[in-house]
C-alpha cells in the first residue's frame, strides 16, 4: 500500500494505545507522488507531497524502503517537485502526520510500538526538530498531543561518563542529579548490579567498579513553546555497568 494511503488510513483512526501512539491526524488537502528520471540515470527519484493550507510536507525516499526523509516547504499551493531549494528537510522516519501545529515524524510503522518521535512546531519562526523519547530503549508508555504541547512518558536510559559504584557522595552522582533532576532518595543500587556483572568477567574488581554507569528511570518529556523539558517521574531507578 502506498505511504500516502497509509497516512489517510491513519487519519481515520483514534488512538489505539499509548505505546503505539496512533492518532487521528489532520487530513491533508491532497496527496501526490512525483517521480523523475534524470538524464543518464537508471534509478528514478521520487517524492510524496502532503498539501496543507500553509505549507507542504514532502517525503524524499532513500535506499531504505522503510524510511524516508521528511521536510517542509512553506507557502500556499506549493508545487510538488523532486527538488526545491526552498525546502527544509527535518528528519528521517517511517511515517508522518500533522496534528494542529505539530508535525510528527514517527520512527516505526503502523501497529508497532513507538520508541521515539521527531516533533516540529510548524508555526515557529525557525523550523527545528526535537526528539521525544530519544533516550528510550523501550517503547513509549504514553504520548499525548494538546493544542500547545506534545508530551511523552517513557523509561529514559542515560549513560554516565563515570562510575556510580562508589555511592551518592561522589561528583559523579552530583552531576547526574543536576542533569536529570533526580534526588538522593532515588540513588540506584549500583553495587548489586556491578557485583552481578562481575561473575564470569575476566577483569579485576577494581577495573569493573570503575567502569562508567548506565541508569534508567521514568521520565516525562514535554515540548512546548519551542523548548523541550524533562521531569523525573515516580518509579524505579536502575543502574548497571555501561558495556
Report on the architecture of this protein:
The protein has two domains: 132 residues, no CATH class; 85 residues, no CATH class. It has a five-stranded antiparallel β-sheet with strand order 1-2-3-4-5, with no helix packed on it. Strands 10, 11, 12, 13 and 14 form a five-stranded antiparallel β-sheet that branches. The chain has a four-stranded antiparallel β-sheet with strand order 6-7-8-9. The N terminus is likely disordered. It is mainly beta.
Concise summary:
14% of the residues lie in helices and 38% in strands.
How many angstroms does the end-to-end distance come to?
Answer: 41 Å
Instruction: State the low-pLDDT regions, or none.
Output: 1-21
Computed structural class: mainly beta
Oligomeric category: single chain
Widest sheet, order of strands: 1-2-3-4-5
Amino acid at each position: 500500500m502506498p505511504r500516502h494511503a497509509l497516512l489517510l488510513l491513519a487519519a481515520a483512526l483514534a488512538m489505539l494505545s499509548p505505546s503505539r501512539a496512533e492518532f487521528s491526524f489532520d487530513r491533508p488537502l491532497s496527496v501526490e507522488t512525483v517521480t523523475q528520471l534524470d538524464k543518464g540515470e537508471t534509478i528514478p527519484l521520487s517524492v510524496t507531497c502532503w498539501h496543507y493550507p500553509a505549507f507542504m510536507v514532502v517525503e524524499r525516499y532513500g535506499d531504505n524502503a522503510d524510511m524516508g526523509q521528511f521536510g517542509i516547504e512553506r507557502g500556499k499551493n506549493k508545487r510538488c517537485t523532486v527538488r526545491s531549494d526552498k525546502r527544509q528537510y527535518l528528519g528521517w522516519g517511517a511515517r508522518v502526520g500533522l496534528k494542529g501545529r505539530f508535525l510528527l515524524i514517527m520512527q516505526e510503522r503502523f501497529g508497532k510500538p513507538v520508541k521515539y518521535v521527531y516533533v516540529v512546531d510548524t508555526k515557529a519562526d525557525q523550523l527545528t526538530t526535537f526528539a521525544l523519547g530519544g533516550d528510550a530503549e523501550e517503547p513509549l508508555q504514553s504520548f499525548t498531543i494538546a493544542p500547545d504541547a506534545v508530551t511523552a512518558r517513557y523509561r529514559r536510559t542515560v549513560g554516565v561518563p563515570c562510575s556510580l559504584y562508589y555511592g551518592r557522595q561522589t561528583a559523579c552522582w552530583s552531576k547526574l542529579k543536576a542533569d536529570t533532576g533526580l534526588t538522593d532518595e532515588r540513588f540506584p543500587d549500583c553495587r548489586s548490579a556491578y557485583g552481578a556483572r562481575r561473575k564470569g568477567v575476566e577483569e579485576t574488581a577494581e577495573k569493573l567498579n570503575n567502569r562508567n554507569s548506565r541508569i534508567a528511570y521514568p521520565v516525562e518529556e514535554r515540548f512546548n513553546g519551542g523548548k523541550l523539558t524533562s521531569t523525573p517521574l515516580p518509579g524505579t531507578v536502575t543502574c548497571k555497568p555501561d558495556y
